């Protein structure tokens, strides 16, 4: 597990501050003669702007070594062209900046209030926005994330720039509000927990190890009321989880079903989260070509998210009854593997004709969603790296949202906006695509033709959800990992969706 230096978020005022880096965030509009900055370094900043050494361009950063005073450097950071520095933009910029400062061997930094004032004003205007202190805490705690548990420690001069460990230990910012900082930390730590798990490879995390991790999480949050029950193969048979058993049958590592629960007194609502936990997706007998198989350790990201969200929700003490259901299996080809043409029966009694063993996520989720429906919750949200088609449609920066419930859609979209995780609503109803679900020999097939694959997946899942329960499906294929750091996301697993769902749950709890 990666250990990152604890950033100290504390009150900071320029006058008495001593340290490595003063940071001033400026928009392009600010970089004129009337630059809105009147500090001791005003002349220096103005001169840099006059010389066009700094223009406020998005992503730009200028270091000015200071020879006088207690601060060693002044960093000018560009926010780009923005009418109002949007909260998300500021948060992402702060994250990128902290990363850069850490690599410049800065141990301490102070965000100057001049660049942040607008941001604080926004907070007062818009009660819907996430408090600035909370976003700064998120940025501080997520920026330095890296997964390097398996890497040999290198001497500093051997390290590539992007591999360098952050030296940053302390971040100060004006007008921090303690409660909001604490909340931001919980959000970030939930997402980091999920990233650490998702980054682990298939030879470390198989279904039973995933279950062990879930049990360990419940143990560590026992006092707060987090529970975990794990079903093994024998129990899965008794529980009629024929779909999960079929997908798991090809691997030496047998499947597991994990049920996390949290039932505080005076719960306002009951919500079930469901996660796809394919610990490795080889495609099974319909094996993936090699260039598609690599990265499929990430196919458990939905499950990791669910665990992260449960952890966060418990730490926040949400007044909600929460269930986290995880179907975990390894999709492998072998003499015992499920085959194309097989007919399997899911927990709700429906039969599935397997037309492609690589469309395994929906098959295991069939059982999980059936069980979720039996719990009769107020809403079900599932998270799954379900389809390549969703990645083709939306790219690697946006997750697909599928729901027939407009209110639920609006709430999730609003939470996603607040947290800077981009969601886009795609159709969860379509008669033409639904035609393709029909099977000659069973109730439905598990895979359709080339077109509309992401919606096909959602339509398949819908067959296992009780009709009157509001339900949303998040297809997080594509956004689950990133190859380049971006905003609060470091290279590797992103745990995209954890903060959005936590935000949604928080709001339900406060209603
Ligand atoms: N886990 C994959 C989907 C995926 C693709 C996740 C790319 C992340 C990145 C899923 O199990 C899968 O293989 N889906 C198939 C479905 C097809 C066989 C109907 C796909 O999308 O190609
Ligand atoms: Mn697959
Ligand atoms: Zn898969």
How would you describe this structure to a colleague?
The mean pLDDT is 93. The chain has two domains: 6-176, 3-Layer(aba) Sandwich (Leucine Aminopeptidase, subunit E, domain 1); 186-510, Aminopeptidase (3-Layer(aba) Sandwich), CATH 3.40.630.10. The relative contact order is 0.12. With 511 residues, the chain is α/β, with parallel strands linked by helices. The radius of gyration is 24 Å and the shape is elongated. It has helices at residues 42-50, 87-103, 113-125, 132-143, 178-199, 207-220, 233-238, 242-248, 290-293, 301-316, 361-374, 388-394, 406-419, 431-435, 453-462, 498-510; strands at 8-10, 19-27, 61-65, 71-80, 108-111, 170-172, 226-231, 256-262, 269-281, 320-331, 343-345, 351-353, 379-384, 399-403, 423-425, 444-445, 471-475, 481-482, 492-493. The protein has 16 helices and 19 strands. Helix content is 36%, strand content 20%. The strands form four sheets. Strands 7-8-10-9-13-17-14-15 form an eight-stranded mixed β-sheet, with helices on both faces. Strands 1-6-5-2-4-3 form a six-stranded mixed β-sheet. The structure holds ligand BES, manganese (II) ion and zinc ion (ZN). Zinc ion is lined by residues 278, 281, 299, 360-361.
